[in-house]
């Protein structure tokens, strides 16, 4: 895919409570979770997520649960959380 394509637009980014992972969400209707250390230490231009979750709608926001590390919330442009 084209990295400059508007369908890859990231609308939100969030970090987990320990700074081990971060997630992106956007108009491609996906939440992509990346490992922070692999991004920082690896000199590659392209990185792949460790997990990818699909949504039915374009995503506008994302937030990790600060108490339960494995939970993440998202919101979409239709106002659904």
Automatic annotation (TrEMBL):
One of its GO terms (biological process) is photomorphogenesis. Gene3D superfamilies: YVTN repeat-like/Quinoprotein amine dehydrogenase. Transmembrane segments: none annotated. This is Protein SPA1-RELATED 4. It comes from Noccaea caerulescens.
């Amino acid at each position: 895919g084209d990295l400059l394509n508007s369908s890859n637009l990231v609308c939100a980014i969030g970090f987990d409570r320990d700074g081990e992972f971060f997630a992106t969400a956007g108009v491609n209707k996906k939440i992509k979770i990346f490992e922070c250390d692999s991004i920082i230490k690896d000199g590659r231009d392209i990185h792949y997520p460790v997990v990818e979750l699909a949504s039915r709608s374009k995503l506008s926001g994302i937030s990790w649960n600060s108490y339960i590390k494995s939970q993440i919330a998202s919101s979409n442009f239709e106002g659904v959380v």
